[in-house]
């Protein structure tokens, strides 16, 4: 089978797609590719200035007039609720892409550890609040963007917000494995409810994006950035598993996509296997319930399957 490229994306005319963090990196590349294929693409971004710059770039690169910016700050539940409250009409695809990586410890507006709060809880709340609009679409999808880092991730229920001890990489890994627990649990619940929503996930391998910008590494570790760039593929290549998950006709709920090269670091988009721990239903259910408690987003119309 020929490798999947941006040209392989089916016609997206008439479909509405929201991409969080679409002003740069994977999100920007995905937005450009989808706009070229005729989708109405909504850039859900925190920074208004950068968001408008991205909107202009994507319109220019894609030739599309159906690209728009809507402000969304995933570190603020009030912002997430405002975004959802202002949404009208069906939503075909939600790509939960935005994130931060290995940052110094900070807390969100709502007091959550930043990486867990933005990468997981913000997207958990956003998806739940947009669920009714996803249900209005004919064949909706939710794409959760995870990472190779999930393979070392554990959900530390005893210190979920890293208040007792903060290790930046452990917190990042926890947030990325949480993305996959969420994806699988959402798929389980929508299947049980008989809803035609495909909850899937993807990861970009090692992609050269600006995700490392917030790490604030000491000068002695500047070599990390150089080493990462030497090993990584382009952000356009890293976006392909996400685009496959969002658009390919053979995708099924619960699927996980990534590169097919050594260690899944680079290569063509393909179906990959997550860490076996994300299949632990007890942890997934416990995390779901805790996330609902923390965010106040209950998914009331989507009860827990028996």
Low-confidence stretches: 219-224
**SSE topology string:** EHEHEHEHHEHEEHEHHEEH
Total count of strands: 10
Radius of gyration using CA atoms only: 18 Å
Give the helix/strand class. Answer: alpha/beta
Q: Span between N and C termini?
A: 39 Å
Q: Which strand order spans the largest sheet, edge to edge or round the barrel?
A: 3-2-1-4-5-6-9-10
The largest β sheet comes out as: 8 strands, mixed
Number of helices: 10
Helix content: 25-40%
Q: How confident is the prediction overall: mean pLDDT?
A: 93
What is the strand content? Answer: 5-15%
**What is the 3D shape?**
globular
Describe the structure.
There is one protein chain. With about 300 residues, the chain is α/β, with parallel strands linked by helices. About 40% of the residues lie in helices and about 15% in strands. The protein has ten helices and ten strands. It has helices at about 25-35, 50-60, 75-85, 115-130, 130-135, 170-195, 220-230, 235-240, 240-245, 280-295, and strands at about 15-20, 40-45, 65-70, 95, 140-145, 200, 205-210, 235, 255-260, 270. The strands form two sheets. An eight-stranded mixed beta sheet has the order 3-2-1-4-5-6-9-10, sandwiched between helices. Strands 7-8 form a two-stranded parallel ribbon. Strand 7, helix 7 (about 220-230) and strand 8 form a beta-alpha-beta unit. The longest helix has 26 residues, at about 170-195. It is globular and about 50 Å long. The N and C termini lie far apart (about 40 Å). Residues about 220-225 have low confidence and may be disordered.
């Amino acid at each position: 089978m020929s490798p999947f490229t941006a040209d392989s994306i089916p016609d997206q005319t008439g479909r509405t797609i929201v991409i969080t963090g679409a002003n740069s990196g994977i999100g920007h590349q995905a937005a450009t590719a989808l706009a070229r294929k005729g989708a109405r693409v909504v850039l859900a971004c925190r920074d208004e200035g950068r968001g408008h710059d991205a909107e202009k770039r994507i319109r220019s690169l894609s030739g599309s007039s159906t690209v728009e910016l809507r402000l969304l700050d995933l570190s603020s539940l009030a912002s997430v609720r405002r975004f959802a409250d202002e949404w009208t009409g069906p939503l075909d695809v939600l790509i939960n892409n935005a994130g931060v990586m290995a940052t110094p410890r900070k807390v969100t507006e709502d007091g959550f550890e930043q990486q867990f709060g933005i990468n997981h809880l913000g997207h958990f709340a956003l998806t739940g609040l947009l669920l009714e609009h996803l249900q209005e679409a004919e064949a909706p999808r939710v794409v959760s963007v995870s990472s190779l880092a999930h393979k070392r991730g554990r959900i530390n229920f005893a210190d979920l917000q890293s208040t007792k001890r903060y290790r930046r990489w452990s917190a990042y890994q926890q947030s990325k494995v949480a993305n996959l627990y969420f994806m699988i649990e959402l798929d389980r619940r929508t299947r049980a409810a008989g809803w035609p929503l495909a909850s899937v996930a993807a990861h970009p391998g090692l992609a050269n994006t600006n995700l490392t910008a917030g790490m604030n590494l000491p000068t002695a570790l500047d070599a990390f950035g150089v080493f990462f760039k030497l090993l990584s593929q382009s952000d356009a290549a890293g976006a392909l598993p996400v685009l496959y998950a969002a658009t390919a006709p053979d995708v099924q709920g619960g699927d996980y996509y990534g590169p097919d090269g050594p260690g899944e670091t680079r290569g063509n988009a393909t179906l990959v296997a997550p860490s076996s721990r994300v299949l632990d239903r007890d942890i997934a259910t416990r995390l779901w319930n805790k996330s609902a408690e923390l965010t106040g987003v209950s998914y009331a119309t989507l009860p827990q399957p028996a």
